[in-house]
Design brief:
heterodimer; A: alpha+beta; 7-stranded mixed beta sheet; 22% strand; B: mainly alpha; 0% strand
């Protein structure tokens, strides 16, 4: 027998699994014990089993740039990532604090704009954001909730400190992988769970539905909630079906809804039914052709008017993108201090503001050691990874930065933590991040559901599913 | 025959749900798990030594007895053997498709060994049984003329299903209103998603019970299943609904009418478990009445 674990060699990054001496950390000891009894052949057999189950269930996503068959399984690595209870309670407090502050920030920038008038951050940063939505100025959203659902991306530096990398306040996806990964792993590889009782994840859809119902317009006691999807060609369509099915709500496309006298209705076989809450998985720009892109066929004509009239809740609220704009990100610690009068619990990654001349000069002369991100793009698109870039790419980015400094930020390369990941016949360290999902109910609700994404290519720091990333089941332990 | 296939399907699903729900639970969950496995014996109709119920490896004991045990005539393996031998004796009445489906299921189950299933984790085995048994129902509907033989197959299927839902409810802890427990109850009855869709507040325990006892159109509620038995009986004799021409129709009609008009509040006042027990007994009585009305000498299949 050749146990898989025998071949694991840690590298010089923060290793989640083993300490600097190569000894498994306490919360991984039970898993290490199990892995020592599992043969490579057996492991491959499990991998095949899991993949065939995922394919059969249709747990797939679409890669836009891939012109061949575009439906793929998100690669699922069977070695679970384990988060001990103590670390989780820190994470939980940290992201709850962040989401609460950012929610207050949104209420402010679309309302009194205190933070700008008091000069705590430059007003032009907000007004120049592509995601700042003038339609929303003066609109009161039900219960003052803007960020019903968010997926905060966390990474760990060389010493194991958790940093917030991105806030993802628009339509974060990935929760279906959390639900499916756990279910499939339990069914296909129950032995892995021998020494553990991770917190169950299957409660998430209920908690999401509770949060959505809570945010219904005032006076609606039994709200009708629907999930608005762009349709079957969207990369996250599978996720939309999973959530709608588990919550027992209707999955609708734009043309299933209509607006009459500022009230939103759903067309059903028994006539029109009033809709109170729309959990939309479609970008702001496509929501309403009257207000935004006139050529969009995904949205609902008149939706924005109904929304502004207060007869329907849109979750997340329109215009939340301004708060997770990459150029606003450096100000989040200040935002936390301003609204909550607290120090941030989780630190930001140091970030260069390219609109500042000194910082920009530093960025453009150190492109080979920085990561540069376009503030108008996400999902790993429009990014320059300095050390692995070509001279031509660096020159192009330099020109682009000089031309539109507002559109770029730069950060030092944070060496993401590593985690044992199956690679052929060995276990090898691969870089990972962590995306917990956060809900806004009466209070911020952080269910024990987090997605671990893993960069499957050796040395790669990009974990996005569209860029060759995979996922892991994430076990959050009790305190 | 269809009764035993139905039973194998339910048993496979119940074991799968409980197995899956006990894998990632904490210590408090483990205690609960022990209770869960004890109740599985009663749901499956398997009588065991009380000593065994206190043992440490309750899960594997339950699993062994409910799947491969040939001593117990209600284990999955026994149910499928009985169904196949029933099918052999009426082979001429069955379509080839029905026979091949059932025979395939029989050969599949016989070819498994407890050891190989234990190594793989039981889920894929249980799911295969469940899927094939469910397909069996579809093949019956699509390939057998909807005449007497089909009506009898319907009776077997729905009688067993109402008794199974009743046994599951009989073992439910009505004092435990946790979301986790209700979710498990619904999943054992295949009702999790249909219930979420039917009820807007999917966490209301009262509604969940009402759904399983009394829902009009959910195909595993006790009321729906009893109606199906009632209708099939009336199709056979062509007696109008609401009247009866034999004992089987009379007892089924009476139960069916009671379920149409009883309210969930009354059921819970009586005690949900007691009411469910009573239903399970009635289902058995209906089985006996059908047997004496139609098959005085052969067991109901």
């Amino acid at each position: 027998m050749q146990p898989l674990l025998d071949r694991y060699r840690r590298v010089d990054f923060f290793d989640e699994f083993a300490d600097s001496q190569g000894v498994p950390r306490a919360h991984y000891a039970g898993l290490a014990e199990t892995l020592r009894t599992i043969d490579i052949a057996e492991f491959h057999h499990r991998v095949d089993l899991v993949n065939s189950v995922l394919l059969q269930r249709g747990v797939t996503f679409t890669v836009y740039s891939d012109s061949r068959g575009t439906e793929r399984i998100l690669p699922f690595d069977l070695i679970p990532r384990i988060v001990p209870g103590g670390e989780w309670s820190l994470i939980k407090r940290g992201i709850a604090q962040r989401v609460l502050a950012l929610n207050a920030f949104l209420g402010d920038v679309y309302g009194p704009q205190r933070i700008l008038r008091e000069g705590r951050m430059p007003a032009e940063m907000v007004f120049s954001s592509k995601f700042f939505n003038r339609e929303m100025i003066g609109v009161r959203v039900p219960r003052d909730v803007y960020i019903h659902v968010s997926g905060v991306d966390l990474i760990r530096g060389r010493d194991g400190t958790y940093y917030v990398l991105e806030d993802n306040l628009r339509t974060p996806s990935g929760i279906s992988y959390v639900l499916e990964n756990r279910d499939v792993l339990k069914r296909s590889f129950p032995r892995l769970f021998e020494n553990y009782a991770p917190r169950p994840v299957d409660d998430y859809p209920r908690r999401l539905l509770d949060a959505l119902r809570y945010s219904a317009p005032p006076g609606v006691s039994d709200p009708t909630v629907v999930l608005l999807t762009p349709g079957i060609y969207n990369s996250a369509y599978f996720e939309h079906t999973v959530l709608a099915r588990r919550m027992g709500i209707e999955l609708v496309e734009g043309n299933d809804l209509l607006v009459h006298e500022n009230v939103v209705f759903m067309k059903t076989t028994k006539g029109l039914q009033r809709v109170d809450v729309i959990y939309r998985r479609i970008d702001d720009d496509y929501l309403d052709p009257l207000a935004f892109k006139p050529d969009s066929s995904l949205g609902v004509v008149g939706l924005m008017n109904a929304y502004r009239a207060g007869s329907v809740t849109i979750a997340n609220a329109v215009g939340t993108g301004v708060a997770d704009d990459k150029a606003i990100y450096p100000f989040v610690p200040e935002i936390i201090r301003f609204y909550l009068d607290e120090e941030p619990i989780l630190p930001n990654v140091p970030t260069y503001d390219c609109t500042d001349d000194v910082q920009r000069r530093h960025v453009t002369s150190h492109l080979d050691e920085l990561v540069v991100k376009n503030t108008n793009q996400s999902g790993g698109y429009g990014m320059l990874m300095g050390p692995s870039s070509t001279a031509l790419e660096r020159a192009q980015f330099k020109d682009a930065i000089e031309a539109n400094p507002r559109d770029f930020i730069a950060q030092p390369i944070i060496p993401l933590s590593c985690h044992p990941t199956v690679f052929g016949d060995t276990l090898a360290p691969r870089h990972i991040d962590l995306r917990p999902f956060v809900l806004m109910n009466e209070e911020v609700d952080v269910p024990p559901t987090a997605l671990t994404r893993v960069a499957l290519t050796e040395g790669s720091l990009v974990v996005n599913s569209s860029q060759g990333g995979g996922s892991k089941d994430t076990w959050i332990l009790e305190d | 025959m269809s009764r035993n296939v139905e039973r194998a399907e339910s048993l496979a699903r119940i074991l799968d749900v409980n197995y899956n729900r006990t894998v990632d639970r904490n210590a408090a969950g483990r205690e609960r798990a022990a209770r869960v496995w004890r109740s599985v014996f009663d749901i499956a109709g398997i009588v065991v030594d009380p000593e065994l119920l206190e043992g440490a490896s309750l899960a594997s004991a339950a699993f062994e007895r409910c799947t491969f045990s040939t001593e117990h005539r209600t284990s999955i393996v026994s149910c499928i053997r009985i169904a196949r031998s029933n099918a052999l004796s009426v082979r001429a009445e069955l379509s080839t498709e029905v026979w091949e489906c059932l025979n395939g299921l029989y050969l599949f189950v016989e070819a498994q060994s407890p050891r190989s299933v234990a190594r793989e984790g039981p889920s894929s085995f249980l799911r295969s049984v469940r899927d094939t048994a469910q397909a069996f129902g579809g093949i019956v509907d699509a390939t057998v003329s909807h005449e007497d033989e089909w009506n009898f197959l319907q009776i077997g299927r729905y009688l067993e299903r109402s008794a199974m839902t009743a046994r599951i409810l009989r073992n439910h802890d009505f004092g435990d209103e946790s979301a986790h427990e209700y979710q498990r109850l619904l999943e054992m009855c295949c009702a999790s998603e249909p219930f979420a869709k039917a009820q807007r507040l999917s966490s209301d325990p009262y509604e969940a019970l009402s759904f399983l006892f009394l829902h009009r159109s959910f195909p595993r509620s006790i009321r729906f299943c009893t109606h199906e038995v009632d209708r099939a009986l009336h199709r056979i004799t062509e007696t109008p609904m609401g009247a009866y021409s034999n004992e089987a129709e009379r007892v089924t009609g009476r139960l069916s009418a009671m379920l149409d008009f009883v309210q969930i509040g009354e059921i819970l006042d009586e005690g949900g478990d007691r009411f469910a027990s009573r239903i399970a007994e009635r289902a058995d009585a209906i089985g006996l009445a059908i047997q004496s009305s139609y098959f005085p000498r052969i067991p109901v299949g």
